[in-house]
Structure formats: structure tokens, C-alpha cells
Design brief:
The complex is a heterodimer of chains A (about 110) and B (about 110).
Chain A lengths: L3 E4 L2 E5 L4 E7 L6 E7 L6 E7 L4 E4 L2 E6 L4 E6 L8 E7 L9 E2 L3 E6 L1
Parallel strand pairs in A: 2-11
Antiparallel strand pairs in A: 1-3, 3-8, 4-5, 4-9, 6-7, 7-8, 9-10, 9-11
Chain B lengths: L3 E4 L2 E4 L5 E7 L5 E7 L5 E8 L2 E5 L6 E7 L2 E6 L8 E8 L6 E2 L3 E5 L1
Parallel strand pairs in B: 2-11
Antiparallel strand pairs in B: 1-3, 3-8, 4-5, 4-9, 5-6, 7-8, 9-10, 9-11
The chains are: A mainly beta (about 110), B mainly beta (about 110).
Chain lengths: ~110, ~110
């Protein structure tokens, strides 16, 4: 089955700096890679996703890159703000009927003012 | 309108009790899930239902029984609660090919 690893487990950056979180997956059949942000006391929220036919996707300060050959994908947050502080999860799915997302273990991002 | 709502938000109960958590989605999604998030924040799937049919049943003690009366509802019943069941339980739903929409979670504490 799919196995998703995520690094680092914790990340502290100064406000205004960039943050990068990296994930690797094991199943070459996976073709959908979402990223979730979980704030304290809330459920995870989808912030960006990428499909395997695309190498990069950007949405304002957030971007995701995918390297299918190496089976890794990364989340990039530029110009970080204190409200970006949260736990971030990557996930991988084969996007089929009854799809099961396998989540990475999470990265706790702290943006220091 | 809350897209995926689960109740209760907090549940404190004694060992050995039976409890239920309810989940409803108004997104028209066909697939619903229960995930368990442990103290280290790890998200692990428990069950998945597609249009009331059980699709995924991970290695979960049979004290946990999901029930889907219709495709908008997926409830979780837990018998004979144990200390190790303490966690946050998330309901989620998805349309085929899309990302999950999660509920806000139910924090279960077994004392």
C-alpha cells in the first residue's frame, strides 16, 4: 500500500521568510496530491492540490511542485505571516472509486513575528 | 451553512460505556469517511462509505461500527470504550476525484 513521509516535523520561520515542506510517496499509481492546513481545534482544510499531469501549481503565496520520477512533492509558502502557523499535512491518492487518501505525519509550522 | 457537521464536538465518558458520533454533509458528496487523529496528530483512516456502501474497513476493533442511513450521513458507534480510544475523530466527505472536506472533529476522552 501507499506510504507517505513528510519532513520536517516542525519548522520555525521568521515572518516574511519562505517555508518549504517536503513529502515522498511510495505508490507510483498515486496521481492526486492534496495539501491540508489544520489550525488549532479545527478540522484539516484543503489549501492546494496537484494532479500527476502537472508539475507545478501556484495560488497566491502558496505553490506545490511534483516530481513523479522521484515520487516527491513539496509545498512552498512565500512571505509567511503569523496566520500561516498551523499543522500542514500532505496526502497521496490514486483518485479512484472509493479513494483512500494516505496522509503524511504532518509538519507543525510556526511563523515568528 | 456548515458543509460537514459532526456532533458532539466534545465527548467525555467512562471506560466501558457505549457512545455514538454523528456526521452529516450537505455537499451532495457520494463518499464519506471516518478518520482518527491521535495525540501526535497522525491521521489514520478507519472507514469509508460510498453511497451507503462500505468501501474501506481498515484494521479497526469491531467495537467500532459505522452506520450510513443515507449518503448524507455516516455515524460512528463505539462499544465498550477503552482508554486508548481517546482521540479526535474526524468525519470527511468527497466527490469522486476531489479533495476531502473535513468536519471540525469530535474530541473523545475516555476516563
Amino acid at each position: 500500500g501507499e506510504n507517505v513521509e513528510q519532513h520536517p516535523s516542525t519548522l520555525s520561520v521568521q515572518e516574511g521568510d519562505s517555508a518549504v515542506i517536503k513529502c515522498t510517496y511510495s505508490d507510483s499509481a498515486s496521481n492526486y496530491f492534496p495539501w491540508y492546513k489544520q489550525e488549532l481545534g479545527k478540522g484539516p482544510q484543503l489549501i492546494i492540490d496537484i494532479r500527476s499531469n502537472v508539475g507545478e501549481k501556484k495560488d497566491q503565496r502558496i505553490a506545490v511542485t511534483l516530481n513523479k520520477t522521484a515520487k516527491h512533492f513539496s509545498l512552498h509558502i512565500t512571505e509567511t505571516q503569523p496566520e500561516d502557523s498551523a499543522v500542514y499535512f500532505c496526502a497521496a491518492s490514486n483518485n479512484n472509486y472509493g479513494q483512500n487518501f494516505v496522509f503524511g505525519p504532518g509538519t507543525r509550522l510556526s511563523v515568528l513575528p | 451553512d456548515t458543509a460537514v457537521s459532526q456532533t458532539p464536538k466534545y465527548l467525555v465518558t467512562q471506560m466501558g460505556n457505549d457512545k455514538s458520533i454523528k456526521c452529516e454533509q450537505n455537499l451532495g458528496h457520494d463518499t464519506m469517511y471516518w478518520y482518527k487523529q491521535d495525540s501526535k496528530k497522525f491521521l489514520k483512516i478507519m472507514f469509508s462509505y460510498n453511497n451507503k456502501e462500505l468501501i474501506i474497513n481498515e484494521t479497526v476493533p469491531n467495537r467500532f461500527s459505522p452506520k450510513s442511513p443515507d449518503k448524507a450521513h455516516l455515524n460512528l458507534h463505539i462499544n465498550s470504550l477503552e482508554l486508548g480510544d481517546s482521540a479526535v475523530y474526524f468525519c470527511a466527505s468527497t466527490a469522486d476525484g476531489g479533495g476531502y472536506t473535513f468536519g471540525s472533529g469530535t474530541r473523545l476522552t475516555v476516563v
